[in-house]
Specification:
Blueprint lengths: L3 E3 L4 E3 L1 H51 L7 H6 L3
Antiparallel strand pairs: 1-2
């Protein structure tokens, strides 16, 4: 018959469109597999790097404010009350 059946027989695809779709899937298979395989690990690693940078920046900010005349952050916040 020359037609590809999709969705359990409810939709029939033309042969030229089926060929086009198969070629499209073949050309993008590597990209999809790379995203599926590496994206979750890459996003997790990126999140950990950003968390580390945020904690480092917070520690630097606390270290700078804590060195003024022996006053800690708590003393600075409660001095104005």
């Amino acid at each position: 018959e020359g037609r590809l059946t999709v969705f359990a027989g409810h939709v029939k695809m033309r042969e030229d469109y089926a060929r086009y779709t198969v070629d499209l899937v073949k050309s993008n298979r590597t990209k999809v597999l790379a995203l599926h395989t590496y994206a979750p690990a890459g996003l997790a690693a990126g999140a950990l790097v950003l968390l580390g940078l945020a904690l480092w920046q917070e520690a630097r900010g606390r270290r700078r404010s804590g060195t003024r005349g022996g006053e800690g952050r708590t003393a600075q916040l409660t001095a104005g009350v």
